[in-house]
């Protein structure tokens, strides 16, 4: 049988790739279609362009087809033109040499009869962003601003702002801002007016840093003729443009109250707008204009309640969350005005968790004496509604937040009888997280309302620590056992069982609370707690966690010195707390209010804290003389003192970061464990039968155990022959007038290795003096140590110091982070002369410790 003859391969069509690479095949097809006049040539071009855009979207480099794409741009098909412009805009910036090929056909299209093509070509021409092609942009932009088509004028207005970013000089020399201003005040099309306004604001804001004329032009934008002209046309604007005009109006300074009322009358109907952004922008105008008119300002709050509550219930969850954030800010400023609308903040089962959480915060904020029982008792603790229902919710974070909300409301009110009763009912629920959160709140309640101790302790005393897994809940329970051990019959035995399981407790927080609780219980019920205290101190002294060991050692020394002093330290007379510290300062809230209708309200922090480069990650800056590396990896940067004080919250360190730093710093010096003396474990701390026996404590005076082992005696300095003191290092003298510019500081910090990392203490007077950080800078200058950068806000401040060794070129560089709450400073020292780093550290710490004492 004869073999089958293979069929001839079909010829490749322009839309099908050949056996070559796909990009090469596309180039070939584009080249074939470049001069084609076939009837279906436009359709074929469109198909090939779609494939090119598809490859570009997939990340394939199709820049090799740039020339062929330009050749095929001669078509009247608008869709093909759009794809060609998209391709050119994507590759022109990366290939500026090829971008020159596009100038001719783009300029030609800018003169096309079709206004759509003219606008698209002008937009693409301005989107090339190639500095060498600036000269080709000015004429099309000038012509476009005078184009009879509103679409082209709109594109040209935005193109002027793009030109400014490419070349500010070319934009100003061409007098484009003046043309934009004239067009804004005369053009009949609302979108053209809005684009001109946006472009002018962008250009003049950036130019104002270098030109007083630009600063004056910005002021003209906020003048009465311009503001009222735009407000009278506001109904013609798009929603985006309305927000732009309203933002401009919020910065207008009226000359009298009549102008304020005129603006509010013009914008009254904007409060019923369907778009949430327009409503919020209008509210911002109302609030800012009436800030100096107290009575009217209160009426504005009443007027804006309904629109805001309508927006919360309508629209997407994201919009509801954004509006709720703004409502929360207003509630914090005027809680009474919203107290009657608490039912609007009840959670719906379909609400996302983030909306529910914010609604719980709203209920907490508006709770007062008039509505507490409606919020908490009737609706919260009913078996079928609100917070008690949430406490058993499958959404654990919401359940936690609901319990915290009840506790916060209780801490705000005077009449808390029913609230405390209901809160204690949570302890009967067999859920670990409910019990833990409730115990934390009960602890806070007892700190503010000690008179409730008997009722609370009666319930808490029935809880077993084995049923509590969360450290914060167990710590709260232990605190209550120590604080009210005289009222709890089984408290010493309960604590003793916890001490026996010391090694199984992995949380340092729980172990610290246990140390203090056992000490408190010992002074209230010594015979029953004596054994537990010895075991607790022994375990604490052998603990590998530095804080636990230090506290145990501190208590041990106190007991050896004088038990009366120890009792005054550990168990002093306490007063009920009147208020708990606010997590956010009033100044910060005012700054957020000034930025109403922005992300600042959603993030609950001013914009400079999340937009400036100084606050984008770990000190990654790359501008100015302040490009100072501050990390051991030489990748973190710092800014100058002047700029740092403007952007101060970058220095706020989280507690976990501090603990990590402290752990790393202490690992090298606390690697060995400490053996407790035998009298802590086997002998009595206080013997009522034989006072003269060996013990840690003698109530008549600070006597010491004769059977204490040598290692602990050495640690405590009890009667051990002191080792000879090594001779002091040679005294270090500093140059009284060191000179170091920021650039050199940056380079040195990046090149030098870290010589020392230490922590030192400030005097209480010094910590208090840091309310004015400049006082520390002046103090260190008096010790020949200069500051090159500083910043921060209470309680955290960061300083960068430098000093120079006298008679030498060696410099010392210091990063100093001060926490005024704990009166401590963390130091990182780098030095040209590493051998003198220790001496400089001693000198620096000496100067720091004397701060505030003189």
From TrEMBL:
Main location: membrane
Classification lineage: Eukaryota, Viridiplantae, Streptophyta, Embryophyta, Tracheophyta
Subunit field text: Adaptor protein complexes are heterotetramers composed of two large adaptins (beta-type subunit and alpha-type or delta-type or epsilon-type or gamma-type subunit), a medium adaptin (mu-type subunit) and a small adaptin (sigma-type subunit).
Ranges where the record places region Disordered: 1-25, 653-675
Family stated for the protein in its record: Belongs to the adaptor complexes large subunit family.
Claim: Protein transport is one of the keywords in the record: yes
GO terms for cellular component: clathrin adaptor complex; endomembrane system
Subcellular location, record wording: Endomembrane system
Extent of Low complexity compositional bias: 1-21
Ranges annotated as spanning the membrane: none
Keywords in alphabetical order: Membrane, Protein transport, Transport
Lineage top rank: taxon: Eukaryota
Known function: Subunit of clathrin-associated adaptor protein complex that plays a role in protein sorting in the late-Golgi/trans-Golgi network (TGN) and/or endosomes. The AP complexes mediate both the recruitment of clathrin to membranes and the recognition of sorting signals within the cytosolic tails of transmembrane cargo molecules.
Residue ranges occupied by any Beta-adaptin appendage C-terminal subdomain domain in the UniProt entry: 732-849
GO biological process, one term: intracellular protein transport
Protein name: Beta-adaptin-like protein
Gene Ontology terms for molecular function: clathrin binding
Residue stretches of biased makeup (Polar residues): 663-675
């Amino acid at each position: 049988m004869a073999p089958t003859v293979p069929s001839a391969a079909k010829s490749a069509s322009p839309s099908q790739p050949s056996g070559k690479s796909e990009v090469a095949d596309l180039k070939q097809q584009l080249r074939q279609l470049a001069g084609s006049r076939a009837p279906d040539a436009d359709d074929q071009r469109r198909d090939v362009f779609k494939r090119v855009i598809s490859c570009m979207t997939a990340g394939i480099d199709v820049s090799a087809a740039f020339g062929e794409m330009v050749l095929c741009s001669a078509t009247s098909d608008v869709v093909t033109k759009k794809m060609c412009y998209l391709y050119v805009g994507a590759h022109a910036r990366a290939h500026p040499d090829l971008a020159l090929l596009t100038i001719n056909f783009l300029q030609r299209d800018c003169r096309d009869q079709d206004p759509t093509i003219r606008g698209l070509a002008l937009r693409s021409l301005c989107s090339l962003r190639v500095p060498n092609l600036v000269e080709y942009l000015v004429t099309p932009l000038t012509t476009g601003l005078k184009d009879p088509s509103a679409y082209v004028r709109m594109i040209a207005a935005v193109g002027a702002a793009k030109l400014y970013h490419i070349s500010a000089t070319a934009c100003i020399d061409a007098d484009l801002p003046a043309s934009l201003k004239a067009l804004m005040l005369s053009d009949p099309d609302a979108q053209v007016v809005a684009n001109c306004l946006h472009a002018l604001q962008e250009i003049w804001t950036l130019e104002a840093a270098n030109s007083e004329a630009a600063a004056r032009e910005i002021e003209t934008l906020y003048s009465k003729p311009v503001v009222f002209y735009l407000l009278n046309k506001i109904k013609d604007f798009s929603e985006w443009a309305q927000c732009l005009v309203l933002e401009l109006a919020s910065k207008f300074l009226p000359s009298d109250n009549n102008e304020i009322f005129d603006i509010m009358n013009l914008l009254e109907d904007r409060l019923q707008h369907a778009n949430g952004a327009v409503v919020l922008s209008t509210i911002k105008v109302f609030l800012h204009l009436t800030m100096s008119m107290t009575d009217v300002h209160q009426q504005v709050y009443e007027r804006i309640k309904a629109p805001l509550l309508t927006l919360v219930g309508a629209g997407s969850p994201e919009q509801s969350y954004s509006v709720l954030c703004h409502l929360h800010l207003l509630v914090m400023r005027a809680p009474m005005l919203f107290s009657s609308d608490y039912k609007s903040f009840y959670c719906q089962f379909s609400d996302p968790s983030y909306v529910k959480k914010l609604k719980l915060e709203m209920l907490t904020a508006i709770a007062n004496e008039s509505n507490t029982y409606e919020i908490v008792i009737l609706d919260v603790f009913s078996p079928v509604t609100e917070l008690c229902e949430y406490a058993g919710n499958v959404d654990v974070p919401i359940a936690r937040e609901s319990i915290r909300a009840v506790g916060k409301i209780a801490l705000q009110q005077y009449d808390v009888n029913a609230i405390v009763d209901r809160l204690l009912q949570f302890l009967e629920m067999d859920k670990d997280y409910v019990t833990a959160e409730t115990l934390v709140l009960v602890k806070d309640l007892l700190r503010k309302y000690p008179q409730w101790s008997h009722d609370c302790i009666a319930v808490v005393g029935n809880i077993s620590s084995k049923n509590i897994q969360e450290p914060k809940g167990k710590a709260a329970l232990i605190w209550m056992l120590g604080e009210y051990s005289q009222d709890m019959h089984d408290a010493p035995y309960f604590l003793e069982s916890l001490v026996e399981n010391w090694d199984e407790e992995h949380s340092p927080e729980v172990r610290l609370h246990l140390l203090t609780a056992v000490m408190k219980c010992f002074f209230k019920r010594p015979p029953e707690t004596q054994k537990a205290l010895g075991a607790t101190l022994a375990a604490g002294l052998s603990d590998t966690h530095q804080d636990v060991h230090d506290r145990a050692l501190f208590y041990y020394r106190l007991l050896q010195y004088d038990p009366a002093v120890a009792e005054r330290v550990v168990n002093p007379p306490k007063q009920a707390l009147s208020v708990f510290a606010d997590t956010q300062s009033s100044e910060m809230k005012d700054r957020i209010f000034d930025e109403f209708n922005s992300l600042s309200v959603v993030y609950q922090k001013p914009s400079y804290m999340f937009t400036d480069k100084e606050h984008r990650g770990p000190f990654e800056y790359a501008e100015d003389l302040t490009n100072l590396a501050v990390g051991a990896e030489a990748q973190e940067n710092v800014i100058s003192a002047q700029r740092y004080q403007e952007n101060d919250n970058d220095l706020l360190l989280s507690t976990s970061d501090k603990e990590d730093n402290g752990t790393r710093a202490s690992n090298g010096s606390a690697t060995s464990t400490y053996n407790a003396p035998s009298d802590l474990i086997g002998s009595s701390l206080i013997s009522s039968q034989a006072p003269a026996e060996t013990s840690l404590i003698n109530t008549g005076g600070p006597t010491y155990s004769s059977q204490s082992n040598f290692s602990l005696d050495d640690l405590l300095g009890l009667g051990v022959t002191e080792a000879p003191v090594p001779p002091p290092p040679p005294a270090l003298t500093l140059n009284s007038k060191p000179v170091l510019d920021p650039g050199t500081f940056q380079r040195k910090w990046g090149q030098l290795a870290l010589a020392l990392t230490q922590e030192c203490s400030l005097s209480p007077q010094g910590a208090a003096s840091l309310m004015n950080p400049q006082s520390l800078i002046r103090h260190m200058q008096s010790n020949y140590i200069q500051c090159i950068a500083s910043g921060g806000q209470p309680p955290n401040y960061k300083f960068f110091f430098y000093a120079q060794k006298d008679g030498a070129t060696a410099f010392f560089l210091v990063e100093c982070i001060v926490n005024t709450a704990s009166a401590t400073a963390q130091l990182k020292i780098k030095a040209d002369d590493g051998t003198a780093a220790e001496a400089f550290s001693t000198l620096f710490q000496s100067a720091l410790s004397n701060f505030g004492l003189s």
